[in-house]
Amino acid sequence: MIVARTRAALRDARAKLGTVGLVPTMGFLHEGHLSLVRRARDENKAVVVSIFVNPTQFGPNEDLSRYPRDLDRDLAMLREAGVAVAFVPDASEIYPEGFGTRIEVGDIALPLEGAVRPGHFSGVATVVCKLINLVAPERVYFGQKDAQQCAVLRRMILDLDLPVRMVVAPTVREADGLALSSRNSYLDAAARVRAAALHRALRAAEDAFLAGERRADRLRARMEAVLAGSGHDGIDYLSVADPDTLRELEAIEHDALLSLAVRFGATRLIDNLVLDRLSGA
Question: Where in or outside the cell is it found (predicted)?
């Protein structure tokens, strides 16, 4: 595996590869990332994984300085997974002196995470666009856990005519349903047990939908009721939205995206679930 630390080294390595699948990450890898790597390996001749904790997607009071990092461990995992190139740039390599361009995606980036974390999706879109331009992959891979991020990036790729296919893979979960996330490492043992309520809340709303409930306020109430017994430390949002626009729904006539953001101590976790009208009652 080639470890490229500069844009020039990445371009040199890329020139020797055939079809490429790109898996952008912020490191501290887990099985969710590795599932994306395996899919990319199956669908392309080579896989490039970026490891970059992107400062422009963190707000001033967020966890940039303490975001978990273990580069040696990550690189060992990627070697074992058969990755061709690991791109591990410093911030100055991605944002050199004088850098001044940011991508604003529009309305889809404003609610939910966009409302709680102003500027977050501009940072995400900008760095992902740069990575796509640098790697020139045929496919780029993301997980469904970050559903709004996927919607934002899909919009960006479409609007900017980027020559890449975006692949969204299912969320990988622990046995109790908690979605895998690098931030799970922040949870102490008690908070880790409580955090399983996120998936239970989503499933409770899904069960109501499958039983015929179509009023969005009732589904939000189902999620809130489950979370009420979890000992959480705050709910940022409970959403029942159109999966394409992320506009909140009053009644579900087609598909819907259930999503939530909940705090356990200083740790903020997100999760989501798609309701498919074809599977409903």
Answer: Cytoplasm
Q: What pTM was computed for the model?
A: 0.96
Residue 224 annotated as binding site: no
182-279 CATH: 3.30.1300.10
Pairing assessment for the beta strands 46-51 and 85-87 based on DSSP bridges: parallel
Parts of the chain belonging to CATH 3.30.1300.10: 182-279
d(CA 122, CA 79): 31
**Mean pLDDT along residues 10-25:** 98
Of 141, 183, 175, the closest CA to residue 28 belongs to 183
Q: Which one of 33, 120, 199, 232 is the catalytic residue?
A: 33
Indicate the residue type of 247.
R
Active-site annotation holds for 232? no
Q: Is 180 annotated as a binding residue?
A: yes
Residue 32 in marked binding region: yes
* 110 labelled ligand-binding: no
Helix axes of 120-135 and 147-159: crossing angle, nearest 10 degrees: 60
Residue pLDDT, tens place only, 235-263? 999 999 999 999 999 999 999 999 999 99
Q: 2-169: what CATH class? A: alpha beta
